Amino acid sequence: MAEEEKEEGEEKAKKSKGMPKMLIFVAGGIVVLIIAVVISYMVAKSVKAPKIEFGVERAEEKPPPPKPLEIGNIGEEEIIARLADEEEPHLAKVSEIYLAFDKKATKLGLELNNPARKFQIRDIFNAVLMSQKSADLITEEGRNELKRELINKINAILLDGQIKDIYMQIIVQ
Fold it and tell me: Exposed, middle or buried, 151 (CB in 10 Å: 0-12/13-18/19+)?
């Protein structure tokens, strides 16, 4: 019997040692939970709620449409250029090229109709196209970047005004 009492005493001692460890884990969990609640409260306070208005809906103010531009083309011939792809050769075919400019710039219209200026513009088209890759020209963003580059380079050689936009048909093969 004495042995049984000793064994029971040892078991109770083991259980009592395990109890403080469990209390430490529970206390640690409660502390972590409190920290999480405080942080989420602070984040929720810092985020601004959207302002919602009830009542009559306001009509969205649309910007006025852009003023019509004068259009000039640089010839009926299409431009075909080999692109800068290294793995597989690709061609870009540009046709129906129209340069848009302000209607008040009548001198610019005359300058764009000058055969020598048309030749320079076609040369700029060739040079810029040959520096492009087919993957860039497939996306809308790439085509818009091509237009911006062409507009900048063409405007650099013009004397009597600036073009505002380029309209063109481009096919990548």
Answer: middle
